[in-house]
Amino acid sequence: MTVTGRAALLAVLGVLPVALSPTAVTFLIVLGVLALLVLVDLLLAAPVSGLRMSRDGASSCRLHATVDVRLSVVNGSGRLLRGFLRDAWVPSAGASPRVHQIALPAGERRVFTTSLMPTRRGDRLPDRVTVRSLGPLGVAGRQGSHQVPWRLRVQPPFTSRTFLPEKLERLRQLDGQLLARTRGQGTEFDSLREYVGGDDVRSIDWRATARRSDVMVRTWRPERDRQVLMVLDTGRTSAGRIGDEPRLDAGLDAALLLGALASRAGDKVDLLAVDREVRAAVKGAGRQELLGRLVDAMAVLEPALVETDGRRIASEVLRRTGRHSLVVLFTSLDAAPLRHGLLPVLGSLTRRHAVLLASVGDPRVDELASGRGDLDAVYGAAAAERSRAERQLVATMLRQRGVEVVDAPPASFASAVADAYLGMKAAGRL
């Protein structure tokens, strides 16, 4: 049962006769009339328990995109249902409108559309559908709730896709024109050509030279069908905010660009998200289905407030990669977590694989480092300089162990990771 503002208004108006004739009889008469009106409206209101509901519409979207989910309502009672319907969702789903006016004749069906603009990744779920059926007087009515399940999976926005045409053009140049001068782990023989100044003498083909009057050298083409394993660190450090978003989200965006680029290059791309446990994995996806599987797996990832287990990362990588691969670690360059987590086991990875560590930098640190206005700014600058020095020291230690390091601000992070991949491919290091 529910009462409306009209009932409250009638109760206020009932104060007038009671004030003019302040007797118990007057009060009881006013109260009885009001109760009778409420009872009549309640009895004449259409029941809500017999409503049949179902949903259809969008089941996935990108973060901050707008999609529609439709709610179908069938009135199975024998009365006209008048009132209001509230389709409630979790706040981060960004549902609107929150309330729909409803006038549904007996036996008929109506469809109510709710627009969603989610503000968080992951699965956004509806709470309940509440229907308020009012009587003909609009004084009171019946109210009930229905659970109508649905799931909207909110995927990463993939803002770095704007870099993809540029990277693909570089890839075409690398694959079709800029052939490697020397052989590396990731190259295969392409053709012979005449020697020109600057060529590595190790690339001279002496047999071909003996057959011709000119010195001939081999050219090498970067191989296809290499394996790229992207490893997302979802531990405590991934929760740190860089600007308006967690560090993890910057890693997701860069991983999507790298995955799209590497698959176009003919390489096999896998994904692993891990801290102390494996949170998500994508393996063996074909080129056509890769991006869809990546965004679906990434959608539900959230930072876990635990220290990342470096040994777990190393063991999972070695278990999942049987041949020489490019392992791209999306993690932080914070000194303490790396020294106690990844550095002790890094050798087991670099002995078998090419390793690229990608970390997004915080532009706020550079802003603080330039501050000299007052005492607080000087202390802030000192702390920022210490932070930058520690990151540079860790990056140097990683490079000495044979690890390629990318440290870039959010705006250029995804592009820098893609450039590092293309550079390693051009050098035959995959």
Plain-language structure description:
With 430 residues, the protein is of the alpha+beta class. The chain is 37% helix and 28% strand. The chain has helices spanning 5-13, 15-20, 24-44, 164-176, 206-211, 247-264, 287-299, 310-320, 335-340, 346-350, 363-369, 375-400, 410-426; strands at 2-3, 52-57, 60-62, 67-74, 81-89, 95-96, 99-104, 109-116, 122-124, 126-134, 140-146, 152-155, 187-194, 216-222, 227-233, 241-242, 245-246, 268-274, 278-282, 326-330, 354-360, 404-408. A hairpin with a 2-residue loop joins strand 16 and strand 17. Helix 11 packs across helix 12 (375-400). The protein is elongated. It starts with a strand and ends with a helix. 33% of the residues are buried.
Quick structural summary:
With 430 residues, the chain is of the alpha+beta class. The protein has 13 helices and 22 strands.
Total domain units: 3
- What kind of sheet is the major sheet? 6 strands, mixed
Uncertain segments of ≥5 residues (pLDDT<50)?
177-186
Mean pLDDT: 87
Question: What order do the strands of the largest sheet run in, or round the barrel if closed?
Answer: 19-18-15-20-21-22
Helical stretch count? 13
